[in-house]
Amino acid sequence: MSKVTLNDINVSYDGKTQILKGLNLEIGEGELVSLLGPSGCGKTTTLRMIAGLETPDEGTIRIRGQAVDGQRPQDRDVAMMFQSSALFPWLSVAENLAFGLAKKNLDRRAHRSQIEAIARQLQLEDLLERKARTLSGGQRQRVALGRALLKEAAVLLMDEPLSSLDRQLRLQLQDEILRLCRQRGQTALMVTHDQSEALNLADRLVVMNQGRIEQNDIP
Q1: Gap between the Cα atoms of 49 and 11, Å rounded
Q2: pTM of the predicted protein model
Q3: What is the DSSP secondary-structure string of 139-167?
Q4: How far apart are CA 131 and CA 106, in angstroms?
Q5: Separation of alpha carbons 196 and 145, rounded Å
Q6: Which of 20, 16, 78 has its CA nearest to residue 208?
Q7: Which pLDDT value is given to residue 11?
Q8: Helix, strand, or coil here: 67?
Q9: What would the pLDDT profile of 94-126 be if each residue is shown by its tens digit?
Q10: Contact (Cβ atoms closer than 8 angstroms) between residue 43 and residue 189
Q11: Which of 156, 150, 92 is nearest to 118 (CA)?
Q12: Can you state the percent helix, strand and coil of the chain, rounding each to 5?
């Protein structure tokens, strides 16, 4: 089971200003949940806590029923797509995508086949040999999404995955993300400011404000 549970999570960066305040959240196995709310409300911090990139002051995070407090990010079976894309600018698109396959024991042909398949799905097939530094913001965002999807982790975390894309491509990739998550039974948590995107994609919406959950229900 890939259920994710956050119990009584408190986070403060300076000992005074609380970013998350007694956060309780459960994400069911195979569920796609969207965090929605204004900037600074704690959405991205919540993702980073699950990924192990930040540590809560108080509370417990469980993945598959096991507490992961103190566990290294690479040991959590989590893939995260950052809003900033976080690509290696000197590497090609194909080489950046390959990092999503780093822990898979694949031969060279299977390795290339998976990269080409995700590139087609994200409309990157003509860019595979381009250096990441030469890409537009939207192209970099698609590469970052592809890298996270290729990892096929138990839990997929996405921070504004489609924000730099034009409307037509955004709608196409919404369908693709949903299809891939359903196909793999992947548990996913997505941060967005776009209400229509959240409504289209999510099984459940979690509305946050000032470090707290204000609403948590189906769209």
Answers
A1: 9
A2: 0.86
A3: HHHHHHHHHHHHH--SEEEEESTTTTS-H
A4: 24
A5: 20
A6: 20
A7: 92
A8: strand
A9: 888 887 676 666 666 777 888 888 888 888 889
A10: no
A11: 150
A12: 35, 30, 35
